[in-house]
Amino acid sequence: xxxxxxxxxxxxxxxxxxxxxxxxxxxxxxxxxxxxxxxxxxxxxxxxxxxxxxxxxxxxxxxxxxxxxxxxxxxxxxxxxxxxxxxxxxxxxxxxxxxxxxxxxxxxxxxxxxxxxxxxxxxxxxxxxxxxxxxxxxxxxxxxxxxxxxxxxxxxxxxxxxxxxxxxxxxxxxxxxxxxxxxxxxxxxxxxxxxxxxxxxxxxxxxxxxxxxxxxxxxxxxxxxxxxxxxxxxxxxxxxxxxxxxxxxxxxxxxxxxxxxxxxxxxxxxxxxxxxxxxxxxxxxxxxxxxxxxxxxxxxxxxx
Length: 304
Description:
The protein has 17 helices and 2 strands. By secondary structure, the protein is mainly alpha-helical. Strands 1-2 form a two-stranded antiparallel ribbon. It comes from Drosophila willistoni (Fruit fly).
């Protein structure tokens, strides 16, 4: 018998006999099993729980209810896992493949959410993961679910539904930066521009420009780079009125003259705009410095 088969048999036994008294102990044992054996263990546990549960049962027995609660705890832990998309898709696809005659794709996500009791954030992340399923009908079902559940999540977080402690209930309070980035990348497909704008404004209050995580900056302050770049371009490219440079154009003749202070003026401008440079990408800084150096070399060549 393979070494990993022994704890897997033990896990199946834990799932089979989970109840109110041993739930916490069972949950911790499974958590430790996943930590010890990694991704394959995570997938195996999820797949087994999806196998033993009948999500369409309107009146599950006591054992099924505790198994569903166990699945809910594992799904919520997926929010801290970088492989949550592949793990969830693996379990859901296997479940659907084995039960295509009885499982209704349009109801599956809602049934899982109701039976496990996961919060709205976990439901949305679960649905987002299922959009990557290998079954088109499950993908479409997940998108349909997100068009209602994701606006509900954001409304709850923003307090638009007039519920007390709604932000905490949504689950968004403790979301990781990586998961928030994933959520932000999908917003425009499932929520209105107005709601998306309200959510982004709220996040800007919580993540000021000076402290925003790097992976969130493009979503929250994406226009800053463009504005700052334009400011740099305007300051480092000296115009005829700002320097002693003068350009005269005649029929077929173009003569350019510049004062010897052009280079020092450009350097001074770059120094005074240091705060702006901090907000610009390293590629932009490099490009503008190259432009300054090249311009200086051209001027020296003209006067040499």
